[in-house]
Structures are given as structure tokens and as C-alpha cells.
């Protein structure tokens, strides 16, 4: 709460341009920028090792757009716009990580409850607050004060990319919520969000089924072959000892 009152542009978007470009960089905002930028760079570095989901390409575009936005807003002294964007995104992300943790712990009810909270915060912050406070501010309101220039087009282009990604992920979340309402339990992530351990377990089960199927098929075919030759099945008649057939 104190953070919000000390930064009035978080609740009044017109404060974003007050005194620009002579806006001082507060130490708290510097560290906030540093933490956010390092976090998204860490996501980029770990992308080759992550599980490839359906939205893998969208994740790459999102991380690239976010890093460019953070870097450009810092260099152009759009600090207030940048912090507003980051706070709006972090509002839902702080519910997403605990949801994953409880999902790994198999606490289904807690996971489902947190996911519903995350979905509500995500849809409100990304589809309502973000377009109204950020896009309207940078695309329309800023032109009442300044003339269009390169930074105007560059920053708004990146923000529009983020908004399109918000719509894409919102559709997936709405679909998951719809299934939850119908079935009463949370289905798997629509992005095929299975961890490596789950994937490995499923792969092992598939391989076991294939091996069992091959073994069963070979046993059936061998028994049928023996029966077609007028002999009894091996499992009832003989077993092999040093390459010879021995009667039981």
C-alpha cells in the first residue's frame, strides 16, 4: 500500500507524464527494474531446457518483447510506464507460482482454488486494466502532451504485442475454467503443461505397454505356430534345456 501511495502513477495514469522527461529515478524503482530484467533474462537462458509446450513460440515472443520494453523504458526514462506494466503483470503471476507448487504437491483443492483466483486476476488485469491504463495512456493520452516520435511507435508496438499474447492466453484460461465448471476438477494445462517427470512416467508406461504387447504377440504367434504344426503349446509341453526339448 505504501508503495502505491508513493508512486501515484500506479493508480492515476496521468501521473506517468508529469514532469517528463525530468523524472528522478528512485532507488526502489531501480532495484525493481533490475530484478524484473534479470528474471526475464533467466527465463530466456532456461528456454532450451524447458519442456516444449504448445505456446513455446509465444513464450519466446513474450520474453523478447518484455526485455525490449524494460530496457527501452529504462533508457528513455519511461520508468513510470514501465513500473505500471510490470505491476499489472506481477499481480496475476504471484498467484500462478503457488498454484504450480500445490499442483506438484498433489493438493488438488488448494491448487484449483488458487487457479480460479489466478484466472480472475489475470483476465481483469490483462484484458481490462492493461488496455485502459497502459495502452490508452501511451497511445492516446501521451499524444495530448507530445508529438509522435520513434519511441512512441516502438513502445506501443511492443505493448500491442503483449496485449495480443494476453488475448491468446486468456482464451486458454477461459477454456480451462469452463472445463473446471463442468467437471468440478482442474484438467491438465491446455498448453500441455506437463513436467519432465510426468512426461518420463508417461513415456515409461507407453514403453511398458509396447513391450508387453510385443511379448504377448510373440507368445501368441509362437504358440499358434506350434499348434498349427500339430504339437502342443510349449508352455504345456516342454521347456528348453541346453537347446534340447525336454518333456515335463
From TrEMBL:
Record-given protein name: CERS4 synthase
Compartment(s) where it occurs, according to its Swiss-Prot or TrEMBL record: Membrane
Positions of transmembrane segments: 30-49, 114-134, 154-181
Residue span of region Disordered: 191-214, 227-248
Keywords from the UniProt entry: Membrane, Transmembrane, Transmembrane helix
Annotated Polar residues bias: 227-241
SMART domains per the UniProt record, alphabetical: TLC (SM00724)
Cellular component annotations (GO), alphabetically ordered: membrane
GO biological-process terms attached to the record: ceramide biosynthetic process
Pathway per the UniProt entry: Lipid metabolism; sphingolipid metabolism; Sphingolipid metabolism
Chief localisation class: membrane
The keyword Transmembrane is assigned to this record: yes
Annotated ranges, domain TLC: 1-182
Reactions catalysed, as given in the entry: sphinganine + octadecanoyl-CoA = N-(octadecanoyl)-sphinganine + CoA + H(+)
Lipid bilayer topology: Multi-pass membrane protein
Gene that this polypeptide is encoded by: Cers4
Originating species: Pandion haliaetus (Osprey)
GO MF assignments: sphingosine N-acyltransferase activity
